[in-house]
C-alpha cells in the first residue's frame, strides 16, 4: 500500500514531520540513506545501544557518517578557483538515522523576534539578499513550545535578558554548570556581558522515559550512549510507536518522481544497490541545506534561487590559556553557558560597523567551552621525547577555555550548493559542490566581537589568548583552511511568498510542486546567529500541522 | 604474530612507533601500549568478522555496565566498500574507482616501512628519527595512528590496560557511571 507521505531524511526535521503526521493519523515511510544505530532493530520504539564513549569510532572513523570516500563533497571558495579545490569532507552533518541530532551537543536556542524580520529591522547590505521571513516569531512560538516539550529542553526562562517572549517555562531546569563555564561566566559579567544557562536538549532530570544526563563528557560529535539527548530519538520512538510509520535505513533517494506540478513518488537505491520506485501522495524533503538542494537538482527542479544563499555560521574562536588551572571540560555536556550580547546592537557596535564601512553588523551566539579528548590533544602535540610531558600537562584538554561565536552569515547569491560536474558518490550520482566564502560583514563582525571575547578571557586570568576563525582568514594567520567547520548549514531552498525569488512558500511547500514540502534549515531566509536546530524543528512541526490540519498539542488520532 | 604485516615490517613499525612515543622510567610509550598492534590490527581489520572498524556500545565494562565494546559492529555493503577502499586501496577495481584510483593504507605502510630501511631496527635513535622525518607524508600518517593507538579504546588493540589514559589522568569511557554534578561544577 502506498503511504500518505514519504519523508526523506530522519534527522530533526524529518523526524518532527513524521511525529506530527503520524500523531494525526497519517501513514508515513521514512527513508534515510545512513545506517540505523539510533533505534533498536528488534523494537524500533526503543533506543539502540550502539553509541559509546569512543573517540576512534566517532571522530576518526565516521561512525555517524558520511564517509567521505563513498559520499564526498566538492568545495571551492568561488567560481574563480575553477571546478573545485577540495574533494572529501565538507560541512558533514551525520548521515545516519537521527541525522544531525545524533552528534549535536543539543544546544537549542530559539531565534529572537527580529531574526524573522532582519530587512525591516536593520535594512539592506550591499551584495547580500537580506530579507524578511514570510512568518514572524509570534506565529512560530506555539511550535517552539511544542517541540521543546517533545524533545525535552532544559533551561531557565528569564536567564537571558535578550530572549524572545515565551508562553511557558522550559520543560526542565538547567543541568550542572561546567566549572570552566562558571569562571568564564563570572568574567563575562564583569566585562558587562550577560551569560546564561544554554537551552539544551539533554535531560537534566529523568524525562519522558529517558534518563538524566550523567555528564560523561562525550557529547558534541558523539551519539549519547544513554539517550539523554532527546533530539530526535524522542520523536522517532514516538513515531514508530504509532504503528503507522515504516523506517527504511540505508535507503538512498536518488530522485523525486514528478508529473507536471505533482510528485508521484520517489526513486531510491537500496542497500544492495538495486533501484526501486515507491509512490506516495506527499513527499517531505528533510536532507539538510546541502543534500536537499542536491536532491531537488537531481530531480530536475529548475529555479534561479535553488542552491543559492548558502549560509553557515562564520565561527570566531577565541582561546585562552590558564596554566595553573585544571578546568576539566571532559566532565559535563560540552557547553553549559552561552551569551547573546553579540547579537544585540548598542552604540559601540553601531559605530564599529560604520567604521568598517557597513550599515550594521551582527555577531552570533557565543558558546563557553573547553578542550577536547586525548587523541585530539595528542595530534596537536609533538612526537618524541617531549610528548609524554606535554600530554600530562594537558594544556589543550584541561588548561584552555574558549569562546566560539556562531556568527550570522548574510545570504550571498555567490555562496551556493550545486552538482559537481565530475565527482560522483559510490552509487554513481553527482555529489554536492559547496562554493563558500565569507563576506565583509562576517569578517568585520568577527574582528570586533573577537576583541571583546579576548578581554573576557584576560579578565578570567588567561596568560595568553589567541583569536582565530573558521573558515580561516588572513588577518590572524591561523586556522587557514577555507572550508568552514560549522555544521550549521542554512539557506539554499529559500522560503518566501514570491515564487520568483523563493523556492518554497511559507509552509515549506515547493512553489512549483504542489505536494513536495521541505522541512529543514534549507528554507531559512537569514541565518541569525543561533543554532538552527530548534527553529528548523519548529518550522517542520508547523508545516506538518498545516498539512494534517492540526494544531500544536493535538492529541493522538487514536 | 602480526595480523597483517610481515615479521620484518612489524619489527620496523614497532621501532618507529617507539621513537614517536618513547618509553621512559614510569612513562609508558608505544611499546607498553601496543601501538604497533593497533596499527597492524587496523591494516588487517578485514581478517576479522565483523571487521575491526567500529567497536560496539554502549559501554566497555570498565566503569560498570556491559562489555559492549568487545563486539564489533558489522559493516553494511556501502561501508565495507569505503573501508576496503581506505585500507586495501582501489586495486584497479571499477567499483572502487568512481572518482579515480585510491592508494590504500596497506600500500602506504608497506612502502613507508620499506623506505625506513631493512636495517632500521639496528640504527640508533638519532638515525631512526632522521629517517622518519625524511618522509613527511608517511610520518604524518604514522603519527595519526600512533595517537589513536596510544589514547584510543583498548578494544582496538592499543592503549593496552589503559596505560595511555592512566598516565595522563584521563578516566576514559566513563559510561554508565559518568560524573557527578559536583565533579562537573567544582574545581
Description:
The complex is a heterodimer of chains A (558) and B (187). Chain A has 558 residues and is α/β, with parallel strands linked by helices. Helices cover 24% and strands 19% of the residues of chain A. In chain A, the strands form five sheets. A six-stranded antiparallel beta sheet of chain A has the order 7-14-15-16-13-19. A five-stranded parallel beta sheet of chain A has the order 8-2-1-12-20, covered by helices on one side. In chain A, strand 9 (252-259) and strand 10 form a beta hairpin. The model of chain A has no long low-confidence stretch (mean pLDDT 96). In chain B, helix 1 crosses helix 3 (35-43), helix 1 (7-20) packs across helix 6 (125-134) and helix 3 (35-43) packs across helix 7. Chain B has nine helices and no strands. By secondary structure, chain B is an all-alpha fold. Classes of the chains: A alpha/beta (558), B mainly alpha (187).
Brief synopsis:
The complex is a heterodimer of chains A (558) and B (187). By secondary structure, chain A is an alpha/beta fold. Chain A has helices at residues 12-23, 55-60, 118-122, 137-151, 179-190, 233-241, 288-298, 347-355, 374-379, 387-393, 395-398, 440-459, 533-548; strands spanning 5-8, 28-31, 39-40, 43-47, 73-76, 86-88, 196-197, 245-248, 252-259, 262-269, 275-279, 282-285, 314-321, 335-339, 364-370, 400-407, 416-424, 430-435, 464-470, 516-518.
Amino acid at each position: 500500500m502506498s503511504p500518505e507521505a514519504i519523508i526523506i531524511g530522519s534527522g530533526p526535521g524529518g523526524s518532527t514531520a513524521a511525529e506530527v503526521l503520524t500523531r494525526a493519523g497519517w501513514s508515513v515511510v521514512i527513508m534515510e540513506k545512513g545506517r540505523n544505530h539510533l533505534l533498536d532493530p528488534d523494537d524500533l520504539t526503543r533506543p539502540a545501544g550502539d553509541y559509546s564513549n569512543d573517540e576512534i569510532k566517532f571522530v576518526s572513523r565516521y561512525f555517524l557518517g558520511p564517509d567521505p570516500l563513498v559520499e564526498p563533497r566538492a568545495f571551492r571558495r568561488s567560481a574563480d578557483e575553477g571546478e573545485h579545490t577540495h574533494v572529501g569532507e565538507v560541512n558533514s552533518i551525520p548521515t545516519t538515522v537521527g541525522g544531525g541530532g545524533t552528534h549535536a551537543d543539543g544546544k537549542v536556542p530559539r531565534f529572537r523576534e527580529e531574526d524573522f524580520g532582519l530587512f525591516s529591522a536593520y535594512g539592506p547590505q550591499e551584495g547580500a539578499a537580506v530579507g524578511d521571513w514570510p512568518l514572524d516569531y509570534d506565529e512560530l512560538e506555539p511550535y517552539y513550545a511544542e517541540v521543546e516539550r517533545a524533545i525535552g529542553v532544559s533551561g531557565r526562562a528569564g536567564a537571558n535578558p535578550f530572549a524572545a517572549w515565551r508562553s511557558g517555562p522550559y520543560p526542565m531546569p538547567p543541568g550542572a554548570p561546567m566549572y570552566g563555564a562558571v569562571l568564564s561566566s563570572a568574567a563575562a559579567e564583569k566585562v558587562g556581558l550577560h551569560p546564561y544557562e544554554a537551552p539544551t536538549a539533554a535531560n537534566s532530570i529523568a524525562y519522558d522515559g529517558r534518563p538524566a544526563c550523567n555528564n560523561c563528557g562525550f557529547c558534541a560529535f558523539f551519539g549519547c550512549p544513554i539517550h539523554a539527548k532527546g533530539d530526535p530519538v524522542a520523536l522517532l520512538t514516538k513515531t514508530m510507536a504509532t504503528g503507522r510509520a515504516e523506517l527504511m535505513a540505508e535507503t538512498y533517494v536518488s530522485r523525486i518522481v514528478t508529473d507536471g506540478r505533482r510528485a508521484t513518488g520517489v526513486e531510491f537505491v537500496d542497500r544492495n544497490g538495486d533501484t526501486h520506485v515507491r509512490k506516495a501522495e506527499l513527499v517531505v524533503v528533510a536532507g539538510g541545506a546541502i543534500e536537499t538542494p542536491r536532491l531537488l537538482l537531481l530531480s530536475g527542479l529548475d529555479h534561479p534561487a535553488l542552491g543559492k544563499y548558502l549560509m553557515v555560521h562564520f565561527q570566531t574562536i577565541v582561546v585562552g590559556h590558564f596554566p595553573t588551572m585544571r578546568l576539566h571540560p571532559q566532565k559535563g555536556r560540552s557547553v553549559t553557558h552561552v551569551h547573546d550580547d553579540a547579537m544585540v546592537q548598542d552604540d559601540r557596535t553601531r559605530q564599529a560597523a560604520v567604521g568598517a564601512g557597513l550599515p550594521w553588523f551582527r555577531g552570533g551566539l557565543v558558546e563557553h567551552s573547553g578542550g577536547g579528548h586525548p587523541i585530539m590533544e595528542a595530534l596537536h602535540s609533538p612526537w618524541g621525547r617531549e610528548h609524554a610531558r606535554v600530554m600530562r600537562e594537558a594544556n589543550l584538554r584541561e588548561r584552555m577555555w574558549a569562546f566560539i561565536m556562531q556568527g550570522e552569515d548574510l545570504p550571498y547569491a555567490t555562496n551556493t550548493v550545486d552538482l559537481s560536474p565530475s565527482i560522483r558518490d559510490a552509487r554513481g550520482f553527482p555529489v554536492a559542490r559547496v562554493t563558500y566564502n565569507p563576506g565583509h560583514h562576517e569578517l568585520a563582525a568577527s574582528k570586533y566581537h573577537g576583541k571583546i571575547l579576548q578581554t573576557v578571557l584576560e579578565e578570567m586570568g588567561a596568560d595568553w589568548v589567541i583569536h582565530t576563525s573558521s573558515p580561516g582568514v588572513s588577518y590572524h594567520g591561523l586556522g587557514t583552511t577555507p572550508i568552514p567547520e560549522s555544521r550549521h548549514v542554512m539557506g539554499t531552498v529559500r522560503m518566501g511568498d514570491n515564487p520568483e525569488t523563493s523556492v518554497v512558500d511559507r509552509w515549506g511547500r515547493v512553489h512549483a510542486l504542489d505536494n513536495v514540502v521541505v522541512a529543514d534549515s534549507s528554507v531559512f531566509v537569514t541565518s541569525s546567529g543561533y543554532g538552527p536546530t530548534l527553529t528548523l524543528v519548529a518550522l517542520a512541526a508547523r508545516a506538518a500541522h498545516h498539512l494534517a490540519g492540526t494544531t500544536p498539542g493535538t492529541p493522538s488520532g487514536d | 604474530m602480526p595480523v597483517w604485516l610481515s615479521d620484518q615490517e612489524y619489527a620496523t613499525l614497532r621501532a618507529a612507533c617507539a621513537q614517536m612515543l618513547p618509553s621512559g622510567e614510569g612513562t609508558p610509550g608505544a611499546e607498553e601500549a601496543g601501538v604497533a598492534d593497533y596499527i597492524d590490527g587496523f591494516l588487517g581489520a578485514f581478517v576479522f568478522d565483523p571487521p575491526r572498524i567500529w567497536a560496539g556500545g554502549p559501554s566497555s565494562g570498565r566503569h560498570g555496565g556491559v562489555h559492549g565494546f568487545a563486539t564489533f559492529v558489522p559493516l553494511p555493503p556501502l561501508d565495507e566498500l569505503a573501508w576496503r577502499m581506505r585500507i586495501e586501496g582501489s586495486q584497479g577495481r571499477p567499483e572502487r574507482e568512481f572518482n579515480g584510483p585510491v592508494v590504500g593504507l596497506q600500500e602506504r605502510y608497506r612502502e613507508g616501512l620499506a623506505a625506513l630501511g631493512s636495517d632500521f631496527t639496528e640504527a640508533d635513535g638519532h638515525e631512526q628519527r632522521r629517517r622518519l622525518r625524511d618522509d613527511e607524508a608517511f610520518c604524518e600518517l604514522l603519527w595519526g595512528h600512533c595517537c589513536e593507538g596510544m589514547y584510543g579504546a583498548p578494544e582496538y588493540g592499543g592503549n593496552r590496560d589503559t596505560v595511555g589514559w592512566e598516565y595522563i589522568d584521563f578516566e576514559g569511557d566513563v559510561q554508565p557511571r559518568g560524573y557527578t554534578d559536583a565533579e562537573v561544577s567544582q574545581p
